[in-house]
Amino acid sequence: MLKANSARSASIGDRLFDACNYIFMLLLVFVTLYPFINMFALSFNDANDSIRGDIYFWPREWTLRNYAFVFSESNVFYATFISAARTIVGTAVSVFCTAMLAYAISRPEYKLRKFIAITFIFTMYFSGGLIPNYLLIKELGMLNSFWVYIIPGIIGVFNMIVIRSFIEGLPEGIMESAKMDGAGDLTTFLRIVLPLTLPALATVSLFVAVYQWNSWFDVFLYNSSRHDLSTLQYELVKILSTSDTGSSAADQYADAQGSAEIVTPTSVRATMTIVASLPIIMVYPFLQKYFVKGMIVGGVKG
């Protein structure tokens, strides 16, 4: 009888815990997704109607005027191209170079691997500062150039730790077999290590791609005078700043037929936010299965 009562109490407790857990997770999902859903609703809602407020989850009066205005700006398409270019090139170069460094540091026969690893980890806690970095970029001749988006962040220390931890978990016999077959370090790295570390590489690629896509401060520092090197996020920042001052050109514009179309700073801000964030959101589901595994391995072995 006591065992039956204890089992019944445990069952009730487990159910209560599961119910509270589900409620908490649903609230967390709601709090996380609501800002994006609200921005989506505002971007597709008529600007005049949005002034009335009470737009939460769904547009009250559907319209594409906000998107027409955003894409009528001549620099948006080219800024999108620059953002995509720096994301693709920056991610590919950074992940490949970081993986090579991680492979070198993971090899036990490399005598200086601990010193090199400590040197890189040291840079995670101390930096030269904004002005020395700017002077360094200037001396390297990378001001007003596309490569200022790629070269300074070519190695990510945290990413290197994740990849190194994954490589150290690989069976050593595989690499020894490759060397017995006459493969050098480069061949082993390209044909053995890279394919086996795909989960870690996918995780790091997501980190780097999100950073590259969302970066705007480096554009402001190094390429603010080059409109042809502006990125989508920097254009969003400029729209947000002009909207806050109330001097946005989004107040009113003429459509192809010459009629006046009202577009408010709030509606343009919401539209630009959706345009800037949607591409990276679409990429994430394809890397999610690798992302979880890569983070677990990096966290346990790091």
TrEMBL record:
Annotated SUPFAM superfamilies: MetI-like
Membrane topology designation: Multi-pass membrane protein
The ABC transmembrane type-1 domain, residue ranges: 80-284
Record's keyword terms, sorted: Cell membrane, Membrane, Transmembrane, Transmembrane helix, Transport
Compartments, as annotated in UniProt: Cell membrane
Protein's UniProt keywords contain Transmembrane: yes
Transmembrane segments: 21-44, 76-103, 115-134, 146-167, 188-213, 268-287
Family membership noted in the UniProt record: Belongs to the binding-protein-dependent transport system permease family.
Protein name as catalogued: Carbohydrate ABC transporter permease
Native species: Paenibacillus xanthanilyticus
Taxonomic lineage: Bacteria, Bacillati, Bacillota, Bacilli, Bacillales
